[in-house]
């Protein structure tokens, strides 16, 4: 008998029939003697619809109210799921975040979980009742509704699993595991039997939306066994694990991409100390998160300064830089919000030189121009024009032999 936390994503609870299928699946686990806490997302498309309504009402929606609005999606799906489990033969009770309670800080739209009370969940499990908890939402110290950021139900599930010391947290979704690249883009992407927390965190942070980055961070920190698996069919899925010496590490574990990117360039800036701080100061204070930064000095003694931000922050960042350009006497301020970032990730890269040149050769062979590059010990990211995104992902997948070979021992 195991204590399991099972999270079902938007597609998995996207219709009445699918919710009934989830209920039947959960009941199957209970019948086998397991104790199961269910976490659900909003029905697919619902959070986008709610965000659209909020943006329709106000060009600069109030973050506190946007969180109340977005949290509504999960309220519907927990009630429907709990009712479906009851109809399928087991007692079940739905819980909003404040009923559990799932405590967070007050950063609306990107709140972080600080504590979860597990008394009610444990009491239900002891009585054979299946608790169905709303993912993605929390409650701050003043009782305000908060949300954890898009895709955040994964993090709710892992945090509950950590608080309960569950045997496993299972992220049940519309793919049967973590693949070497998004299977929607790469036909011959391979499911990984296992992946390290470190690689999964990097892939998730670089855009692979199969797991919310915070959920991986949480699972690594609290040693929660984490598995990504299909909601629809049986199978082992992908286990996220600590690095094992016995595992033959492939150099590259997978490819991630993000369309959520934009870049800004200030050209012809006088090359004097303090320029980077004058340019990035107002952006950082906004606060707008800056990702890659490149600075080049030209022959004429001026410098060009380029950095990337999330696409949603592009207009705001451009507005902030107008006055800075005038102050610094820079020649030009330009930008591009039709760019994308493609990254190769693998802990095996630590001990292998030449991965970058292999990646650049593959892009060159397809005539794809690299706009920016950034590297760390276990990843290389390039920025390319968005129109080349899918081609870039596919050609890198092929260049590193990810489709053809068996990628792990198991
Ligand atoms: P859910 O609604 O269940 O949370 P998501 O849409 O958030 O599901 O995440 C699952 C999706 O992640 C898949 O449908 C797939 O297209 C995408 N994805 C991106 N990269 C990967 C990857 N490396 N492996 C598996 N799925 C991936
Ligand atoms: N419903 C939320 C979203 O669409 C949370 C989640 O799906 O994990 O982002
Ligand atoms: Mg998701």
Describe the structure.
With 410 residues, the protein is of the alpha/beta class. It has 2 domains: 3-174, Acetylglutamate kinase-like (Carbamate kinase, 3-Layer(aba) Sandwich), CATH 3.40.1160.10; 254-399, VC0802-like (2-Layer Sandwich), CATH 3.30.2130.10. Helices cover 35% and strands 27% of the residues. The chain has 12 helices and 18 strands. It has helices spanning 16-31, 46-57, 63-87, 97-100, 119-126, 153-164, 197-205, 213-222, 275-285, 314-328, 355-365, 389-399, and strands spanning 3-8, 35-40, 92-95, 102-104, 113-116, 130-134, 137-139, 145-147, 168-173, 194-196, 226-230, 238-241, 254-270, 290-297, 302-310, 332-345, 372-376, 379-385. The strands form 4 sheets. An 8-stranded mixed beta sheet has the order 3-6-2-1-9-11-12-10, with helices on both faces. Helix 7 packs antiparallel against helix 8 (213-222). It is globular, with a radius of gyration of 23 Å. The mean pLDDT is 94. Bound molecules: adenosine-5'-diphosphate (ADP), aspartic acid and magnesium ion. Magnesium ion binds next to loops. Adenosine-5'-diphosphate binds next to loops.
What's this, in brief?
It contains twelve helices and 18 strands.
Which terms would index this structure?
binds adenosine-5'-diphosphate; 8-stranded mixed beta sheet; Carbamate kinase; 410 residues; 6-stranded antiparallel beta sheet; binds magnesium ion; alpha/beta; binds aspartic acid
Radius of gyration: 23 Å
Which ligands, by name, code or SMILES, are bound?
Answer: adenosine-5'-diphosphate, aspartic acid, magnesium ion
- The third-level CATH topology of the largest domain is Carbamate kinase
- Give the number of helices: 12
Instruction: Kindly report the spatial arrangement of strands forming the biggest sheet.
Output: 3-6-2-1-9-11-12-10
CATH architecture of the largest domain: 3-Layer(aba) Sandwich
Largest sheet: 8 strands, mixed
Q: CATH class of the largest domain, anyone?
A: Alpha Beta
Would you list the SSEs in sequence order as H and E? Answer: EHEHHEHEEHEEEHEEHHEEEHEEHEHEEH
Which ranges are low-confidence, i.e. pLDDT below 50, for 5 or more consecutive residues?
Answer: none
Strand percentage: 25-35%
Structural class: alpha/beta
